[in-house]
């Protein structure tokens, strides 16, 4: 139940989306030496005729999916993403995967946001919170039994379609017109790269890591 999928669907129906899920412990609470808050990925989506704005992110500096793809590519992270077994910040994905001590976004702010989303999500869904998930999955990182929230808001209950478009377009124009640090890397809004990547994948096919593809073929009996 990847929340980002539903955030895109909500935006494509012309509505504002707010979706999030809690997970078992995989992020260090600020000031702790062990993981005790969830990744708790959260998505916000805003409809727009020229391409929706969709912010889809885990509350760790890098999602575990990003750690995996970076490791499989034989690369290091551009910025520290968590701690190694010696309690040192590291850019090596495998070291973070081993300790499960991912760094929260925004340091203490991300830690607090993860906690708030966990509690609110479990209360609204009448489901499991992160400590209960830890007891259920026993460190397997399966996210089975997560509490999930999907909210869709029709903005045209409050504004006209033209007003919604104007608000979104003016904000995105301000982002596009900002002077980039690197002239070769223009500023983009959340979701802009995904729209481009989706178009490329539909035209050219979806790139898959060869090791993962081999595992899929084995599971399929080929």
In short:
This protein is of the alpha+beta class and 222 residues long.
Descriptive notes:
The protein has 222 residues and is of the alpha+beta class. Helix content is 41%, strand content 15%. It is built from eight helices and eight strands; from the N terminus they run αβββββαββαααβααα. It has a four-stranded antiparallel beta sheet with strand order 5-4-1-8, with helices on both faces. Strands 2-3 form a two-stranded antiparallel ribbon. A hairpin with a 5-residue loop joins strand 6 and strand 7. The protein is globular and about 55 Å long. The two termini are 28 Å apart.
SSE order, one letter for each helix or strand: HEEEEEHEEHHHEHHH
How would the global form be characterised?
globular
Q: Which segments are poorly predicted (pLDDT under 50) over 5 or more consecutive residues? A: none
Return the structural class.
alpha+beta
Number of helices: 8
* Overall average pLDDT: 92
Count of strand segments:
8
Beta-strand percent range: 15-25%
Radius of gyration: 19 Å
Tell me the strand order in the biggest sheet.
5-4-1-8
Termini gap: 28 Å
Helical fraction: 40-55%
Largest sheet: 4 strands, antiparallel
């Amino acid at each position: 139940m990847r929340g980002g999928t539903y955030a895109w669907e909500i935006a494509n129906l012309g509505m504002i989306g707010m979706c999030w899920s809690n997970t078992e412990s995989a992020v260090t609470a600020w000031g702790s030496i062990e993981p005790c808050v969830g990744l708790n990925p959260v998505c916000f989506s805003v409809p727009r005729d020229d391409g929706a704005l969709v912010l889809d992110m885990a509350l760790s500096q890098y999602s575990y999916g990003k750690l995996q793809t970076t490791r499989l590519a034989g690369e290091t992270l551009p910025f520290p993403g968590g701690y190694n077994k010696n309690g040192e910040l590291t850019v090596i994905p495998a070291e973070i995967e081993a300790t499960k001590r991912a760094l929260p976004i925004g340091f203490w702010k991300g830690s607090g946001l993860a906690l708030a989303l966990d509690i609110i999500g479990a209360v609204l869904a009448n489901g499991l919170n992160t400590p209960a998930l830890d007891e259920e999955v026993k460190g397997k990182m399966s996210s089975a039994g997560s509490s999930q929230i999907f909210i869709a808001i029709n903005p045209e209950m409050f504004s006209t379609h033209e007003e919604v478009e104007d608000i979104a377009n003016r904000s995105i124009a301000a982002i596009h017109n900002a002077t980039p640090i690197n002239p070769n890397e223009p500023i983009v809004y959340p979701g802009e790269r995904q729209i481009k990547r989706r178009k490329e994948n539909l035209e050219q096919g979806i790139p898959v890591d060869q090791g993962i593809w081999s595992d899929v073929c084995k599971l399929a009996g080929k």
